[in-house]
Amino acid sequence: MATTFKNFALVGGGGALGKPVLERLLAAGAAKVVVFTRPESTSTFAPNPSLSVEKVNLGDIDALAAALQKHSIEVLVSVVGHAALEGQPMLIDAAKKSGVQLFVPSEFGFPTEGITDEGFLAVKARVADYAKSQGLPSLRIYNGFFADYAFFLGSVEEKGKFLMVEPGDKEFTLTAVADISGFVAHVLINFPQTKLKDATFRIEGDRMTLRDLASLCNTVKSIPVEIVDAVPKDVALAEGKQYLIAHFNSRKGIVSWDNSQQKDLGTSAISNGLWAGHTWKSVKDVLEQ
């Protein structure tokens, strides 16, 4: 019988994706899940017999390695946010030192293998490349944009309407957080170790253009739509939004995109079938929740 992983650790387990991943791992029957938090963290977690929470200085490689070793961690999952992406090489160093067998970097977005720009996607690519250089197997999961945060792309919260940046005519991938977290738990708990090491999975709940998304938000949520040439500089994270939208408009926003070959690999590259029997949520499903 193929060997599966039993003991998992999460960094970023209190975040928008981290908490659902934690909940799904526990629900799927993980033998042990340890959430590492910074000493100053105020995050709280519901009690569970399989869950431990340990405060540790994530910038102290020796301390983190000791904590990983103490709990016999086999898989280290990073679900950190953008601000902490560049700190992941320290997690890799600690994981390698402690004998961790698999590192799951904080990808959870668009394909980064072979990317040549210098945005945050390049930071993610360098993290995975560093893990490889250290001989630490990794699992990369691409899911496109979080469908639950579709309003973010249109600056709805700041402007009270969906700002549709032209041309907005190229499709990109959106996947619900519930589907992402469920898939992560499913493969980590059930798949043989050999199928996860140095693997890349591409999952997709829905695919549409920014123009279609704006129209859907208008139809489902009665949000007005305004066509604009660029993201206004006075909205939160304007530069990041413009970067993402430019990425979509260059056709690179679909999870089946291959940066090295500069082409769409097609539906055969999508890994949804690995979660047999699961019904994936559309953006409309998420908006109507």
Automatic annotation (TrEMBL):
The answer to whether the entry has keyword Protein biosynthesis is: no
* Entry-linked InterPro entries: NAD(P)-bd_dom_sf (IPR036291), NmrA-like (IPR008030), NmrA/Isoflavone_reductase-like (IPR051609)
- What's one GO MF term for it? oxidoreductase activity
- The domain of life for this entry's organism is Eukaryota
Record key words, sorted: NADP, Oxidoreductase
Native organism: Coniophora puteana (strain RWD-64-598)
Q: Name the Pfam families for this protein.
A: NmrA
In this protein, which residues make up the domain named NmrA-like?
Answer: 8-226
Which PANTHER family does the protein's record reference?
NMRA-LIKE DOMAIN-CONTAINING PROTEIN-RELATED (PTHR47706:SF9), NMRA-LIKE FAMILY PROTEIN (PTHR47706)
Know the name of this protein? NAD(P)-binding protein
Instruction: Report TM segments.
Output: none
